[in-house]
Design goal:
CATH architecture of one domain: 3-Layer(aba) Sandwich
Largest sheet: 9 strands, mixed
CATH class of one domain: Alpha Beta
Strand order of the largest sheet: 2-1-11-10-12-13-14-15-16
CATH superfamily of one domain: ANL, N-terminal domain
Distance between the termini: 70 Å
Number of helices: 15
Bound molecules: adenosine-5'-diphosphate
Strand content: 25-35%
Helix content: 25-40%
């Protein structure tokens, strides 16, 4: 080892973001739609003060450093205060996805040994159902104005958020500790087996936010107004709550109302410039805007991720003056790994070329190293036609699951580097542009070929009568598997099976064209808004293909 540099050691702590915001962006606004029904306005300075009060009050209540403190809450200012109070005092902000089944939530709360659970009043019935099965929980804290506490409480030991906070000391001083300490915990849905915990550190969260905000990342500045539709329980709303303090942009939090009309109203009223969410959310918004012939006056950038974004959606957003960025990542990656966006001279490319590029998942952010490997684990070259499983490493990528499990996903290469297998199948071009072709579980394996379900869905979604489509494998005696398409039509639109299959002609090789189309009223969506392919495959497992 050479000599040490002579620079200060300043730990990258979540509380340092808040201290920065309090000094440099104190008047930046945070607007929240509350479960109380109104639109609430506050500033980063007030949030910082209340977070200190809450941290002090939690200390008085006996919350310890390193302890997991759970939330079951929408995007709102109180949730933001908890993020900072809990992590800032050295405890762990454990966001629960309230869309998980009660059984999963009970499992998670017991696994994480939560003693304190904060919840929005929307989730009172959920609390009522699970409380008896969560013996470690000592207090349930309802996030509502004190005078709006319901007469009938969901369980024993329910406290009021504002009452607790009022007892805290706003002069509380954030403790300093090792930046490798845990600051957040998020369980993945675990489509197979029990949910698994991903434990973030202060260092990983701060570094992730620093890189995510860069121009080739999400690209945000203090003059933006940002609406995270992506929930704060879905991988920390993709880091936006941390970026808000770092950057000082105006933050608009949509609370419980995520339908097209409500989101449109917020985008317009609060002059939002950038909004982030999963494709299903934009489907709802676009539908509403198109049906009512509306326009956006300030909203011009969107970050879409969590599932592949169809080109038709990128095109429709562009027609409304909104440019799309695609983000790819996962809970295990904090979540951002790559971003796909068009900037600079590339804005002169023909539009369709731009859209095709955005529809790929993008280039790695600094800090994220990636490679693709074949079934034997050998590295595949970039720039080839071949796709393989995508492996990643980096300072905000998981090293091991909380409490163990999932060891198969981790490997060490010949040079001693540790890699995490994402479970995604992808292709990387010679410039490093990465394209997910499938989740390995969703690939359609037909006659020795791998058919990309994402490609098939992309084509279907480009048909004007198609609202949403999922391509899945069904068993076939000769080809092992063949693709079928499960489709939801747009309201008042018509298309037949044959017309839709004909639509594939010339767009993809013949052998990849689905064998059949099934029209349904609705596709099943999981807790993070993704189409539940597992459930669909189960539903169609005995499906008889036409001769
Ligand atoms: P969960 O499975 O619990 O919902 P995540 O929300 O972490 O977990 O999902 C991560 C997975 O979502 C990725 O491995 C990938 O399959 C998929 N995904 C995320 N973003 C994209 C994207 N932009 N394009 C395609 N797939 C994506």
């Amino acid at each position: 080892m050479g000599v040490n540099g002579l620079m200060m050691q300043m730990p990258l702590l979540v509380s340092s973001l808040l201290e920065h915001a309090e000094r440099h962006h104190k008047d930046s606004e945070v607007v929240s739609r509350r479960t109380e029904g109104d639109l609430h306005r506050t500033t980063l300075k007030e949030i910082a003060g209340r977070a200190r009060q809450l941290a002090s009050a939690l200390t008085e209540l006996g919350v310890q450093q390193g302890e997991n403190v759970a939330t079951m809450a929408w995007n709102n200012y109180r949730h933001l205060e908890i993020y900072y109070a809990v992590s800032g005092m050295g405890a762990v902000t454990h966001t629960l996805n309230p869309r998980y089944s009660p059984q999963q939530l009970i499992y998670i709360l017991n696994h994480a040994k939560n003693r304190t659970v904060f919840f929005d009043q929307t989730f009172a019935p959920l609390v009522k159902g699970i409380a008896a099965h969560c013996p470690t929980v000592e207090r349930w804290v309802m996030m509502v104005d004190e005078d709006k506490m319901p007469a009938e409480l969901p369980t024993e030991n329910v406290l009021n958020y504002e009452a607790i906070l009022a007892k805290g000391d706003a002069g509380y001083v954030w403790p300093q500790f090792d930046e490798n300490a845990a600051c957040g915990l998020c369980y993945t849905s675990g489509t197979t087996g029990n949910p698994k915990g991903v434990l973030y550190s202060h260092r990983s969260s701060v570094l992730h936010a620093m890189v995510a905000g860069q121009p080739d990342g999400i690209g945000l500045c203090s003059k933006d107004t940002v609406l995270p539709v992506v929930p704060m329980f879905h991988v920390n709303a993709w880091g936006l709550p941390y970026l808000a303090m770092m950057t000082g942009f105006k933050l608009v939090l949509p609370g419980p109302r995520l339908d097209g009309a409500s989101i449109y109203e917020l985008l317009e009223a609060e002059k939002v410039t950038l909004a982030a969410g999963v494709p299903t959310i934009w489907l709802g918004l676009l539908n509403y805007v198109q049906q009512n012939n509306l326009k956006f006056s300030t909203f011009n950038k969107t970050l879409v991720g969590g599932a592949a974004i169809p080109i038709s959606m990128i095109r429709a957003l562009d027609a409304l003056g909104v440019s799309t960025m695609q983000g790819w990542g996962m809970t295990e990656m904090s979540p951002l790994g790559t971003i796909s966006k068009i900037q600079g001279p590339d804005l002169n490319l023909p539009k369709e070329e731009q859209f095709a590029r955005i529809a790929k998942q993008g280039k790695a952010l600094f800090g994220v190293d990636m490679k693709i490997v074949d079934e034997a684990g050998s590295e595949l070259p970039w720039g080839g036609e071949e796709s393989g499983e995508l492996l990643v490493r980096g300072p905000w990528i998981i090293d091991s699951y909380y409490g163990g499990g999932g060891e198969k996903a981790f490997s060490i290469d010949d040079s001693g580097k540790k890699w995490f297998a994402t479970g995604d199948v992808s292709r990387i071009d010679s410039t490093g542009l990465m394209q997910i072709t499938d989740r390995s579980k969703d690939v359609i394996k037909s006659g020795g070929e791998w058919i990309s379900s994402i490609d098939l869905e992309n084509i279907a979604m480009a048909h004007p009568a198609v609202l949403e489509a999922a391509a899945i494998a069904v068993n076939h005696p000769k080809w092992t598997e063949r693709p079928i398409l499960v489709v939801v039509k747009r309201p008042n639109a018509e298309v037949t099976r044959d017309e839709l299959l004909k639509f594939y002609d010339g767009k993809i090789i013949k052998m990849y064209i689905p064998d059949d189309v099934v029209f349904v009223n609705e596709l099943p969506h999981g807790a993070t808004g993704k189409i539940q392919k597992l459930q669909l495959r189960e539903q169609f497992k005995d499906y008889q293909l036409p001769e």
